[in-house]
TrEMBL record:
Residues given in the record as Mg(2+) 1 binding sites: S87, E221
PANTHER family per record: ANTHRANILATE PHOSPHORIBOSYLTRANSFERASE (PTHR43285)
Family: In the C-terminal section; belongs to the anthranilate phosphoribosyltransferase family.
Subunit structure, interactors included: Homodimer.
UniProt EC number: 2.4.2.18
Protein name in UniProt: Anthranilate phosphoribosyltransferase
Keyword Transferase: yes
Pathway(s): Amino-acid biosynthesis; L-tryptophan biosynthesis; L-tryptophan from chorismate: step 2/5
A molecular function GO annotation: anthranilate phosphoribosyltransferase activity
Source organism (scientific name): Sphingobium subterraneum
């Protein structure tokens, strides 16, 4: 008998919890797990199921200590746009604005360069960054939490997910299972229709302040190209839905092609030029998303003020200096 309930109907919190705990603890055959995950995806995961999967992962992750007010800026990935590494740059700029950032990330799955790939190309030793994560977060205000080092329970599922070859609920899990247990988050999701569902799951998990954002083009970050769906979650549990565009932050619009990326070396070079003051759409995308991060962190209340503070951190060389110190901290 399969250890999993019928996934063609919405699962209760207890059913979902039992299923994901069993899966992460080694129960079920590859075929049973594959069939369960595919059926969930075909039906469309509920907020209850997403929260249950996140709790199961959190219970099995290898955590780190983090200072009060630490934030994560992380996208679910999978938007297929092959853009430059916006959230990685946002993490560095946000930290340069005196907000501690526990950046959760991984290597690329569907893009040409994930956050881990680009940071490595910049000179960050990922093994050292993992070993010194708590220290760099405390001393420098930033760390990189390499997902594969903090979620050993997912190792068995890797080949199964690869064989499935399509999105499953685990593609939504990265931002919800940060090893630093952050309670302030800017999360990008590549599916605008999932913004309210995902925000309900995050509210159930508990936050101090968070934003779920999705560009109209299916971008897993705030887009310069058009409008964006934003769900803002307060500590009270209130979810506010709104529409936001680049003009709200005093920034010009730009097409997606303007931030198209390449391999890790290409993206790393672009990120370094950005931190050294290069202007253009990439900088504007980072300013826009950093403004959101600073609002979530409680640093600013206005989008324009957030973009201006981010620009100042870059133009004064603070963000570039922080990256250099981080790389040297090995």
């Amino acid at each position: 008998m399969t250890p999993f309930p019928d996934p063609t109907r919405p699962l209760s919190a207890a059913e979902a919890s039992e299923a994901f705990c069993a899966m992460l603890d080694g129960a079920g055959t590859e075929d049973e797990i594959s069939a369960f995950l595919i059926a969930l995806s075909d039906r469309g995961e509920t907020a209850v199921e997403i929260a249950a999967a996140a709790r199961a992962m959190r219970e099995r992750m290898i955590p780190i200590a983090a200072p009060a007010g630490a934030i994560d800026v992380c996208g679910t990935g999978g938007d297929g746009q092959h853009s430059l590494n916006v959230s990685t740059a946002v993490a560095i700029v946000t930290a340069a604005c005196d907000v501690p950032v526990a950046k959760h990330g991984n290597r690329a799955a569907s893009s040409k360069a994930g956050g881990a790939d680009t940071l490595e190309a910049l000179g960050l030793d990922l093994d050292s960054a993992t070993a010194h994560a708590e220290a760099t977060l405390s001393d420098l205000g930033i760390c990189f939490l390499f997902a594969q080092n903090h979620h050993p329970a997912l190792k068995r599922l890797g080949p199964i997910r690869k064989a499935i070859g399509r999105r499953t609920i685990f593609n939504l899990m990265g931002p919800l299972a940060n090893p630093a247990r952050v309670r302030r988050q800017l999360i990008g999701i590549a599916r605008p229709a999932y913004v309210p569902i995902y925000s309900e799951a995050l509210r159930d998990l508990g936050v101090d302040h968070a934003m779920i954002v999705s560009g109209d083009e299916g971008l897993d970050e705030l887009s310069l190209a058009g409008g964006n769906d934003v769900a803002e979650i307060e500590s009270t549990g209130i979810i506010g839905m709104r529409r936001v565009s680049a003009t709200d932050a005093g920034l010009p619009s730009a097409p997606l092609d303007a931030i198209r990326g390449g391999d890790a070396a290409y993206n790393a070079a672009a990120l370094r030029r950005l931190l050294q003051g290069e202007t253009g759409a990439y900088r504007d995308a980072v300013l826009f998303n950093t403004a959101a991060a600073l609002i979530v962190a409680g640093k600013v209340t206005d989008w324009r003020d957030g973009a201006e503070e981010a620009a100042e951190a870059i133009d004064k060389g603070l963000a570039n200096a922080l990256l250099n110190c981080w790389i040297a901290y090995q």
